[in-house]
Amino acid sequence: MLKNEFHILLIDDDEDDFVNIRDLLNDVKSSNYKITWESTYSGGLKALQEKEFDACLLDYKLGEKTGLKLLEEAHKRAFTYPIIFLTGLSDFELDVQAMESGASDYLVKSQLTYPLLERSIRYSIKLAYDVEEIKKTKAQLLQQDRLASLGLLASSLAHEIGTPLGIIRSRAELAEKKAADNEILKKDMTIIVTQIDRITKLVNSLLHLARGGKSEHVTTVDLDLVLEDVLGLLEHEFGRKNILLRKEIVPGCRVKAETGPLGQVLLNLLINALHAIDEARKIDVNHLNEVTLKIEPLENQIQVSVTDTGIGISEENQQQLFKPFFTTKDIGQGTGLGLATSLGIINSWGGTISVSSQLGKGTTFTFLLTQG
């Protein structure tokens, strides 16, 4: 994380303090510091929420409220950049309170020099970066542990229920053929077969997700042919729901992938887009109902994106989206494996998948694959 330009937020109700700190940081020759100054509690909290900073310098006295209260609020909202506490007097008890509330450091204004201030900012930024890296590493280890347990479960399920399900499915198909003109029996047998296929697909998704790693079956896949199959399955659903499907597709794109799993990824993303718009309609019946499927070449890659005008996804949920069994849908409406499986599939081909979303505005899922 080597850099020499930093954006610092100063929350302090005294303009003289702002001028002094600005001048001290201007004396630093090794780095450039841009300072944004907020003089009120509300202005400081708003700036913390709306803008990205490398670090924050926070004064103890902020009118009727204190910087300590703002520090606690910032910690509660899980802001990741470091906050350095400033005060006019050295107070050990206040120092301890600030640290317990999440401050990266505690500085007395009367003792400030530019080397001390610059070092505190630089060390606090590095510490915050290291903490985030540790969190990411722990999350990755936890995910690997979950996938290992999931693999054992999926292998056991595939072995223990695969054969009985196959027998039940065969008998149901046989009963359906023998039903002759008994339409009620035929319908019941069709339901049984459909539900068995659903269970089989779930087990296969678990197996694919747990195995991870690179796929050994990558070939050159014609995206036009995959899209023809996928859209053939869904165009009726788009029409029935009165949702416009916009297609911005550069024809002739080929990628390194597998035909069946690639269709599964596209199908999952488009179905999720339909569900998102359904949820938005519950809030506003006049909501704009559009899904845009865009495919374009980028140097040696092909970029595929699915954008909806649905309900959107909160930042908190965006962090969880690709984890196994995480779902925002009602009980019985989703397994929480669709996006996790899609991530595993895309990664197995050396590709990447990402999401960007805004509540009330919509969501875009984008994946990149190597050109075929």
Walk me through the structure:
The protein is of the alpha/beta class. The chain has three domains: 5-112, Response regulator (Rossmann fold); 138-211; 219-370, Histidine kinase-like ATPase, C-terminal domain (Heat Shock Protein 90, 2-Layer Sandwich), CATH 3.30.565. It has ten helices and 14 strands. It has helices spanning 15-26, 41-50, 67-76, 92-100, 114-178, 183-211, 223-240, 259-283, 315-318, 338-348, and strands spanning 5-11, 32-38, 55-59, 61-62, 65-66, 83-87, 105-108, 219-222, 244-249, 254-257, 290-298, 301-308, 352-358, 362-370. It has a five-stranded parallel sheet, with helices on both faces. Strands 9-11-12-14-13 form a five-stranded mixed sheet, with helices on one face. Strands 4-5 form a two-stranded antiparallel sheet. Strand 13 (352-358) and strand 14 form a beta hairpin. The longest helix is centred in the middle third of the chain and has 65 residues, at 114-178. The protein is elongated. The mean pLDDT is 81.
Give a brief description:
The chain is an alpha/beta fold and 372 residues long.
Topology:
Elements: E1 5-11, H1 15-26, E2 32-38, H2 41-50, E3 55-59, E4 61-62, E5 65-66, H3 67-76, E6 83-87, H4 92-100, E7 105-108, H5 114-178, H6 183-211, E8 219-222, H7 223-240, E9 244-249, E10 254-257, H8 259-283, E11 290-298, E12 301-308, H9 315-318, H10 338-348, E13 352-358, E14 362-370
Parallel strand pairs: 1-2, 1-3, 3-6, 6-7, 9-11
Antiparallel strand pairs: 4-5, 8-10, 11-12, 12-14, 13-14
Helix pairs in contact: 2-3, 5-6, 6-10, 7-8, 8-10
